[in-house]
Amino acid sequence: MHTFAELIIVLVILLDLALAVTGALSTCIRLVALQGVVAGLLPLLAGAGAPHTRAVLFAVVIITLKGAVFPRLLMRARDKSGARKDVEPLISYPASILLCLGAFIASSWLGSRLPLPQAEVAWIVPASLATIFTGFLLITTRSKAITQVLGYLVIENGIYIFGLALFVEQPMMVELAILLDVFVAVFVMGIAIFHISREFDHIDTAELSELNDWRRGEYGK
Amino acid sequence: MEIIKPLLQYLAVMLLAPLLLGVINRVKALFAGRCGQPLLQLYFELYKLFMKTPVYSRTTTWVFKAGPVIGVSAMVTALAILPFAGRPSFLAFDGDFIFLIYLLGLARFATVLAALDTGSAFEGMGASREMQFAVFAEPAFFLGLAALARVTGHSSLAAMFGVLTGDLWRTAAPVLALLTASFFIVLLAENSRVPADDPNTHLELTMIHEVMVLDHSGPELAYILYGAALKFWLFGSLIACMVLPRHSGSWALDSGLFILVMFAVAAAVGVVESVIARLRLIKVPYLLITAFAFSALAMIFQMGR
Predict the structure, then answer these.
(1) In chain A, which residue's Cα lies nearest the Cα of B181?
(2) What DSSP character marks residue A52?
(3) Is the ipTM of this complex over 0.85?
(4) Residue A107: which of A121, A134, A125 has the closest Cα?
């Protein structure tokens, strides 16, 4: 059973690496959704014995939200914004993947130093830290507004996995509150991206630092 | 009898290696709806080439003639240390996986020197590409073998694959799966198979390995083709040893199963070639960096267990 959970952890890390090299925006959205689903499955496998009904219900909610609702919202935002269909990274893909690997090495060192209770599944802490780092990487080195949302979702996945390392079953209220926050955030960001692209004809974050009236003349609005 | 077995294994490798490329071609033909070449095509070609007289350009020196010979002898030596069906070959010693990597490097070096010796700019370009991709492939392969040595706790290839049993797959499945994937990518790149290079093209601007051997003819071209077949067997047998961890007591059963798995690996390569298009030349390093990342992950996983 734990070997299976370890395989899922490996899958989460491989998805991190895939996110670092993927150029197509739609593939990125699907990868983030897949990572959410995989992370949602993890608590069912990490605990000893059969999972509670509550845990199963909760996993179902997470999987529907992260696997079906979020990707649909993001795809809609991508289509409506009419932007180019690739992520337009600021650094090259090999550099991204090497940064990701470096992050994994650093987080495995950090994971061994943190005073945490012994986790049931090996590698769960380094994997979660590496996932959080990948989220930051997506936010900082990609120039689209959608990838910022994606990075935010990846960070949420990482935090969720980190929570699993501490308690196999988290307090339901906390988790539900986080899920609601994330849902609202993705919803609001989707609307925001749509408005940004309608107002400025692009969703390039590098340009957003100069949101002044005089830019309007340049973009013809 | 115990002395004869390793020799028999070695003989089987030497005889069966060209058959694998025939299997790949037949699988590709099956996917494309063609009849395809005969399974034994490479044997016929080797026979034909050995009957021919080589032709040498006036600009070449002995380096050009030495290249194919060094290449094929490095492969023949390398196969003498590779395990067969998880059983040691007769030249196995501690730390021989480093020797294996140096033999591969030597073969590559000789081929590249021979290509440069022709004085053709075109072959020089091929040599440069071969070296460029080797820079990415070798660390991936070396780190993969080092991680495997770490998992199994042995430093000889024969011992590594000897202790690789089903139990090890149960406890260290993630590491072994990552290593198998990494070796498969290195196999595709090192043998100039489709995602990295297309062995069938002679479209000048896309080929990597084929370009370097254009000036060779006759028996020397036969050496190169045979060396390529042996190299494919070498990488294929690493994968076959990884995915076939069961060792029954019987030597004949193990060997038969192993050869079957080798054909399955060749068929898998054929399927990959049929369903994937060749990558753009500048994307090939990405593929190899992925292999490197797999090996590095496997290593990190193993260090922290």
Answers:
(1) A14
(2) P
(3) no
(4) A125
From chain A, the residues in CB contact with B176 under 8 A are none
For residue A86, the SS3 value is strand
Chain-chain contact of B301 with A10 (C-beta, under 8 angstroms): yes
Region of A220 please: left (phi>0), alpha (psi -120 to 50) or beta: left
B303: distance to nearest CA of chain A, Å? 10
- Residue B143 to chain A, least CA–CA distance (Å): 14
What are the distances in angstroms from CA B291 to CA A210, B220, B287, B297? 41, 32, 7, 10
Task: Give the HSE-up count for residue A29: Cα atoms under 13 Å, Cβ half-sphere.
Answer: 23
State the Cα–Cα distance between residues A96 and A28, nearest whole angstrom.
14
**Nearest CB to B293: which of A3, A17, A112?**
A17
Distance from CA of A10 to the nearest CA of B (A): 7
- The string of pLDDT tens digits covering residues B184-225 is 999 999 888 888 787 776 655 667 777 888 888 899 999 999
Query: Which chain A residue has the Cα nearest residue B300?
Result: A105
Rg from Cα positions in chain B: 19
A49-82 per-position pLDDT tens digit: 666 777 788 888 888 888 888 888 888 888 877 7
> Residue B184 half-sphere exposure, CB side, CA atoms within 13 Å?
20
Residues in contact with A210: Cβ distance below 8 Å, sequence separation at least 6, in sequence order: none
